[in-house]
Amino acid sequence: VRYWSNIPFITMPLSRAHGKSFAHRSELKHAKRIVVKLGSAVVTRGDECGLALGRLASIVEQVSMLQNQGREMMIVTSGAVAFGKQRLRHEILLSQSVRQALHSGQSQLKDMAIPVLEARACAAAGQSGLMALYEAMFTQYSICAAQILVTNLDFHDEQKRRNLNGTLHELLRMNIVPIINTNDAVVPPPEPNSDLQGVNVISVKDNDSLAARLAVEMKTDLLIVLSDVEGLFDSPPGSDDAKLIDIFYPGDQQSVTFGTKSRVGMGGMEAKVKAALWALQGGTSVVIANGTHPKISGHVITDIVEGKKVGTFFSEVKPAGPTVEQQAEMARAGGRTLAALQPEQRAEIIYRLADLLTDQREDILLANKKDLQEAENKGRLALPLLKRLSLSTSKLNSLAIGLRQIAASSQDSVGRVIRRTRIAKDLDLEQVTVPIGVLLVIFESRPDCLPQVSALAIASGNGLLLKGGKEAAHSNQILHHLTQEALSIHGVRDAVQLVNTREEVEDLCRLDKLIDLIIPRGSSQLVRNIQKAAKGIPVMGHSEGICHVYVDTDASVEKVTRIIRDSKCEYPAACNALETLLIHRDLLRTPLFDQIIDMLRVEQVKIHAGPKFASYLTFSPSEVKSLRTEYGDLECCIEVVDSVQEAVEHIHKYGSSHTDVIITENEKTAEFFLQHVDSACVFWNASTRFSDGYRFGLGAEVGISTSRIHARGPVGIEGLLTTKWLLRGDNHIVSDFSEHGSMKYLHESLPLPQRNAS
């Protein structure tokens, strides 16, 4: 805790040796000293006359938040000219209206022309008002701000430069935010092409070059340049092929075509890039981003400091492999080639991968052993997650069997005709299955997920991006290598990509132009986070697996304990494990109820009592905190219901639409349950653990979906396909089918082609 004027504020341990810029976005959270440059387009309104007060208030709030974290914040701001223009316009209009009224003696005023206002006069009139506004805003966060006006001479004169440096350091030491601007009231007109001629020479002709010069002079860790575009594009924004550049490296200027300058202000994107590269060479990291977008401007600065993928990050370190955007494009191109292969060729790839899993068993288990040792040494994984991380010979054999099932069942998945209609004579319509496109599968602690999902993507002709957890890095690496080896037999190696860069999951979820479907495999928290972060990309999955077993009055004594034991104890961490046991009230205090309780105690299952169950007991187990709990361990809730109808209502209120079971010998009661429970999987006298793609005969699954659109339940090949319509005609036009046209619609259903019997 540091003190200034007897007011304590918290500081963060953010020091680092200056001299080299950050290599990756994820390191930006360590930035201690930060310059935020606000372009004219960010600070001014759309009419270029006056300030965008809402945006400015949001920026001040973010800067204050970072300052109060113990960072040293500086602002290089535009806006004095726009603020001064607004004031001078008002004064001129007022003056003209008074003179005209006196001269004409009339109350009605004619149209008045406003003279062109000289920028330096506007700056002189606007500086004090702009600073007063900043002071008022920062005061709301108990932060003091100070104004510094500079010109080019202040950097070229050694004494002035030392004075400026000393002033800024003293302000930062006192926890004051310096607000710096070029003194536009006295600055001469800019000389064209006179700035940024080398590492040691940069003239201050606009606030971009000022911010760069200041950042290097003050040994700043990070320079954030906010403008009215998302960042740097490979061609002018708005053009058809323009793509946002995530990371820009020195020397990449040749691949960029610059457009016109900003709608206001003196610098364009070319000036910003030159200034950014100059700062980068001086050891300061730079991000250029949009400060005007209403959806992101409220958190753009804090997002950048947190390392999120916002704008264009300037880095001197080129990654060894492709970017995730390039990987997604490679996966799309590879997926399209994969979809064009013959079904037998796709099956060959999967059979080859199944063989490799058993042939390379020792290497796979060795890599997995490294992951397990690292996880145990770091102590970061709970026992259930360690079990998921672990591979064994039996697991690999089961994987290989599942993959061969997928290969055998995938012969006519892609391109299968599911509907044929004769629209009119010689005009036939077909609906055929096609791949979804590019899938992003994010999975935790389950390396066996990689070959399963890869096989399903191959069988369905989809491109695939895989993002595994760090805890399974060695296992994932070798399994992906084997997958690409199998794909290589038909030249489609790039169709399956493993993301090894430092991409955050949240950033991957923003790639809506490159990814068509996200499938999370992991904890309910992971699924919820992805569902929240996905921007315009559908997410297939379930956030929770709150599975119920209802024991009816007509339940078989022999079946009850077997089904409950298997549902809860066979693999308690699974999403299809029993979490809530519903007991019919008439079974309380019966031998069957005692058998259930005894079995759970023997299996060391911790019991939580639902409110109704607790009311029947003198000494009850701990009452459940919530009936919507997924324990994922040897724990479960027991609750009492009065009827099958009440059981259904309880499941609808507290369940997650995953898997629910009834145990009864009464067929009528069972059918009522099966028809009325609105879950993805509803079973009669069978364990919840059957809710699985392999057990359903799908070979494997990419996950279990509780969504009501597209796929539901265990998702195999069919869930990774969509359809398209093919219409074959012969010079047909719609006007021929009008009231006075020569043709009539037939809409006849045609027989489907015979499916491959294999």
Question: CATH homologous superfamily of the largest domain - what is it?
Answer: Acetylglutamate kinase-like
Please give the radius of gyration in angstroms: 33 Å
What is the mean pLDDT? Answer: 86
CATH architecture of the largest domain: 3-Layer(aba) Sandwich
Q: Give the end-to-end Cα distance, rounded to a whole number of Å.
A: 73 Å
Question: How do the strands line up in the largest sheet?
Answer: 5-6-4-3-7-9-10-8
Number of helices: 23
CATH class of the largest domain: Alpha Beta
Give the structural class: alpha/beta
Q: How many structural domains does the protein architecture include?
A: 3
Got a strand count? 26
Any low-confidence stretches, pLDDT <50, length ≥5?
1-16, 190-205, 262-267
Q: What would you call the quaternary organization? A: single chain
Write up what this structure looks like:
Mean pLDDT is 86; it is low at 1-16, 190-205 and 262-267. This protein has 3 domains: 25-92 and 118-187 and 201-314, Acetylglutamate kinase-like (Carbamate kinase); 327-416 and 433-533, Aldehyde Dehydrogenase, Chain A, domain 1 (3-Layer(aba) Sandwich), CATH 3.40.605; 548-701, Aldehyde Dehydrogenase, Chain A, domain 2 (3-Layer(aba) Sandwich), CATH 3.40.309.10. The chain is globular, with a radius of gyration of 33 Å. Helix 15 (449-460) links the parallel strand 13 and strand 14 (463-468). The longest helix is centred in the N-terminal third of the chain and has 25 residues, at 80-104. The strands form 6 sheets. An 8-stranded mixed sheet has the order 5-6-4-3-7-9-10-8, with helices on both faces. Strands 19-20-18-17-21-22 form a 6-stranded parallel sheet. A 4-stranded antiparallel sheet has the order 25-12-11-26, with no helix packed on it. The chain contains 23 helices and 26 strands. By secondary structure, the protein is α/β, with parallel strands linked by helices.
